[in-house]
């Protein structure tokens, strides 16, 4: 069971997963859909994130995603993940600039 | 004139099986996509077919048995990179290739394409016997005592789909060499096998068990000194049975054979193996001379004809061209035929990604293998490529051909020949990025004359404690660690995988990523300042101990 994300002051949560068909990193939108751009992710406070995560996990198969979890971001535009791992997931591998992911809204 | 590349040969049964397996997996993929199978149910099925889910996409790991390919197979890998991936592949430390940008629904088609050239991705994941690795100079090197490809093929046949060893406590890795110079890191494997001729000329096998890297690095211990060829399979079977019965399944971090061997001691392990052998039907596992001879016939030495002046031509070309001479010094090895030479092609361009090759480079390598080395290619566990049988008088033409596609880097065994795992740029397990540090180090030491001056020095980089970059075995090792979401690197020194295997020891506190390259540069400068004439980095380290190197690495921190 994944440990709850510990948020520091000013941070928010976003939901993320991988697309079932091709494994691409996706981010949960406010309308319940998934998007390749982290700029489209809905920012969640901790008190509502748990319910959103449960809903997203329940809908994962129908929405074509796998491995749903939450992660902390700085609420800038576009949101910036706190950890190196999630930054790389959001922006693409740092060693191939040509594979950079469009992150803007 | 050329003869077929020496490696496994499929028959109709093998091919029918592969097609059935692909059809089975295609059905599983369909059921995953329509939701009949959950991800928890599907994950072990895809892993049994070499398909991982990484940070950005699915990754397919394709098996290259004992690292040997023919040009037709290599060309197919290039085509897959171009058609299904992002135009490149990554050669791994188990002599395999990984494709990093695979779509789940494409996977059955890719497996069908691989099957066209007798390849697959089975047993490249999961708790089974993984791809058996071997010496990249097998069947060619002047220092070889026994050609290990023959018994590597015996092991491939024995371990493939072995019903008893498909669900071991944990993954299981075997390496085999036939040279007195260990080029397979035998003592860092679950089972390491060193073959040599016995008194009657037939091969005998020295067997080590319980070696490994990962979070508990251990140097394998000798279980038997001289296993006779006829008993090789029975002995391996018994070693695996003891592990399968007694290896821990309650804790993934304590499930490898090394933990069992450490827990009960090698003497007790040997007794358990001997007891198992005592109650086995040995005839059933006997490796007969006829069976070995049939396999050996597939590994015929190519017709090694060379002009009488081949050596003289090469000598003159080296005199005339210092750049070529530098490449020959670092990137070739002595062949047993005086008219031929072994060429190692570096996949470590300065500032590049260790082990990566574009589809164009892969295709060109296949062409060059056809033109210069009987259509045969070997992938090394150090993430390079070997052409095993190059005529000396044609070596410069090969080098020129390699130069055209950026594959003529003169750095084998030198500081630029860095081994690195994919790290956090791709891997779901990693804590830190391995590739950017490798690129920065490669760029820092890009000058091949400087690399030659520094001499033998291996750097290995792992992005996490799982140690896929074999950092414990590096003369200088880097382990990526995560400190509150930031990348740090722990330095080790003194590791070696060759003869006299040793684990690197930690030099000091982990360094921030942006200070790591400078620290290594100071460490290398320290070595250059302190070494005595002809001394390698490891020899200087052994003579002086860690302290001067620790002081140099941390002086600015």
From TrEMBL, chain B:
Keywords: 4Fe-4S, Heme, Iron, Iron-sulfur, Metal-binding, Oxidoreductase
Key word Repeat present: no
Transferase as UniProt keyword: no
Annotated Nitrite/Sulfite reductase ferredoxin-like domain residues: 58-117, 353-403
Gene3D superfamilies in alphabetical order: 3.90.480.20, Sulfite Reductase Hemoprotein, domain 1 (3.30.413.10), Sulfite Reductase Hemoprotein,Domain 2 (3.90.480.10)
Matching InterPro entries: NIR_SIR_4Fe-4S, NiRdtase/SiRdtase_haem-b_fer, Nit/Sulf_reduc_fer-like_dom_sf, NO2/SO3_Rdtase_4Fe4S_dom, NO2/SO3_Rdtase_4Fe4S_sf
Domain Nitrite/sulphite reductase 4Fe-4S as annotated: residue spans: 125-279, 418-553
Pfam families, per the entry: NIR_SIR (PF01077), NIR_SIR_ferr (PF03460)
Protein name (Swiss-Prot/TrEMBL): Sulfite reductase
Native organism: Gluconobacter kondonii
């Amino acid at each position: 069971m994944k440990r709850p994300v510990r948020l520091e002051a000013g941070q928010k949560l976003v939901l993320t997963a991988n697309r079932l068909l091709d494994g691409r990193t996706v981010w949960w939108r406010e309308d319940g859909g998934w998007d390749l751009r982290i700029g489209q992710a809905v920012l969640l406070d901790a008190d509502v994130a748990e319910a959103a995560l449960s809903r997203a996990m329940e809908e994962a198969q129908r929405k074509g995603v796998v491995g749903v979890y939450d992660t902390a971001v700085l609420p800038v535009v576009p949101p910036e993940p706190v950890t190196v791992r999630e930054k790389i997931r959001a922006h693409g591998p740092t060693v191939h600039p040509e594979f950079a992911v469009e992150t803007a809204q | 004139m050329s003869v077929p590349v020496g490696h496994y040969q499929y028959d109709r049964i093998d091919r029918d099986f592969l097609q059935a397996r692909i059809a089975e997996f295609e059905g599983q993929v369909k059921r995953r996509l329509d939701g009949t199978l959950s991800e928890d149910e599907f994950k072990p099925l895809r892993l049994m077919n070499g398909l991982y889910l990484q940070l950005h996409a699915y990754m397919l790991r394709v098996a290259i048995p004992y690292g040997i390919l023919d040009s037709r197979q290599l060309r197919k890998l290039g085509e897959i990179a171009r058609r299904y991936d992002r135009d490149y592949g990554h050669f791994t430390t188990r002599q395999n290739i990984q494709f990093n940008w695979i779509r789940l629904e494409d996977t059955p088609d890719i497996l069908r394409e691989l099957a066209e050239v007798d390849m697959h991705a089975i047993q490249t994941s999961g708790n089974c016997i993984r791809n058996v690795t071997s010496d990249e100079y097998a069947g060619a090197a002047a220092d070889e005592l026994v050609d290990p490809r023959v018994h590597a093929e015996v092991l491939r046949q024995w371990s493939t789909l072995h019903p008893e060893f498909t669900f071991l406590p944990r993954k299981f890795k075997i390496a085999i060499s036939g040279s007195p110079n260990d080029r397979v890191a035998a003592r860092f494997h679950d089972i390491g096998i060193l073959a040599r001729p016995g008194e009657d000329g037939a091969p005998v096998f020295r067997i080590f068990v319980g070696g490994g890297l990962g979070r508990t690095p251990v140097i394998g211990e000798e279980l038997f000194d001289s296993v006779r060829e006829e008993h090789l399979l029975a002995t391996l079977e018994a070693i695996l049975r003891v592990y399968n019965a007694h290896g821990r399944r309650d804790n993934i971090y304590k499930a490898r054979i090394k933990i069992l061997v450490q827990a009960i001691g090698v003497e007790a392990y040997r007794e358990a193996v001997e007891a198992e052998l005592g109650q086995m039907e040995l005839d059933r596992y006997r490796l007969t001379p006829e069976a070995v001879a049939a396999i050996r016939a597939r590994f015929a030495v190519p017709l090694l004809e060379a002009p009488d002046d081949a050596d003289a031509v090469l000598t003159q070309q080296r005199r005339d061209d210092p750049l070529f001479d530098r490449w020959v010094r670092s990137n070739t090895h002595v062949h047993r035929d005086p008219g031929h030479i072994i060429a190692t092609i570096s996949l470590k361009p300065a500032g590049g990604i260790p082990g990566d090759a574009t589809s164009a480079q892969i295709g060109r390598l296949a062409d060059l293998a056809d033109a210069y080395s009987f259509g045969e290619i070997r992938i090394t566990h150090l993430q390079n490529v070997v052409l095993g049988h190059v005529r000396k008088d044609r070596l410069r033409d090969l080098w020129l051909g390699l130069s055209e596609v950026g594959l003529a880097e003169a750095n084998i065994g030198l500081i630029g020949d860095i081994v690195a795992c994919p790290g956090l740029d791709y891997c779901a397990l990693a804590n830190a990025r391995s590739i950017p540090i490798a690129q920065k180090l490669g760029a820092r030491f890009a000058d091949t004359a400087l690399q030659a001056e520094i001499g033998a020095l291996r750097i290995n980089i792992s992005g996490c404690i799982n140690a896929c970059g074999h950092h414990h075995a590096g003369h200088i090792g880097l382990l990526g660690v995560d400190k509150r979401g930031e990348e740090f690197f722990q330095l080790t020194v003194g590791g070696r995988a060759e003869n006299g295997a040793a684990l690197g020891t930690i030099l000091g506190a982990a360094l921030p990523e942006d200070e790591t390259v400078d620290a290594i540069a100071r460490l290398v400068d320290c070595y250059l300042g302190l070494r005595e004439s002809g001394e390698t980095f490891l020899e200087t380290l052994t003579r002086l101990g860690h302290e001067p190197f620790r002081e140099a690495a941390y002086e600015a921190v």
